[in-house]
């Protein structure tokens, strides 16, 4: 153990043992309480079929930055260890400069996009709900059998928002969403699509106006096959949460 070992020898030895250099799998840090809530949600929806999930409209906000570090950290692990706790990189939600947008979609179609020029508060979110969510839900689900999904951001839980949904509960239902469940929301993968397309642009945006235009164009060109495939994965996502008893899944 007192002998020095060169880097190349170390890498060769690790490969012979079955390890490969890979990026961390980024996952949110899930508390014990929220793990129970995730499990309860999965249990309540374990019998939902693909046809049931077609009635859900998914929503979320996301921020895209003009310049940022990709945060790439590489680790050595074996092929089947991608979700091993020692190979995970926990993340927490954070803000940053750039352009924030709100979007929604369902199995049927991509929904509206709303650029947000400031921090999203309850008043601004109420305008989004009344001007965009309401017409989308009543058009896509005229039989009042639609479910609207939103996460547990403070502005989503404000009294004026809850009261508005209560007044319109005869038109659609708000899906009771478990905290810290990015892996259950298929719209997160659409954000990844937008992010990858932004990075792949031949000419990168140099100001916020160009960045916003690029985001709108990329979203509008996401294929129907892409977002429908994500909704079709919901029964598998639910089974994955049940398997790990509310813990983090591979999604």
TrEMBL record:
GO terms for molecular function: DNA binding. Gene3D superfamilies: Ribonuclease H-like superfamily/Ribonuclease H (3.30.420.10). One of its GO terms (biological process) is DNA integration. Residues 145-200 form the Tc1-like transposase DDE domain. Coiled coil: none annotated. Residues 4-47 form the Transposase Tc1-like domain. Pfam families: DDE_3 (PF13358), HTH_Tnp_Tc3_2 (PF01498). PANTHER family: TC1-LIKE TRANSPOSASE DDE DOMAIN-CONTAINING PROTEIN, TRANSPOSABLE ELEMENT-RELATED. This is Tc1-like transposase DDE domain-containing protein.
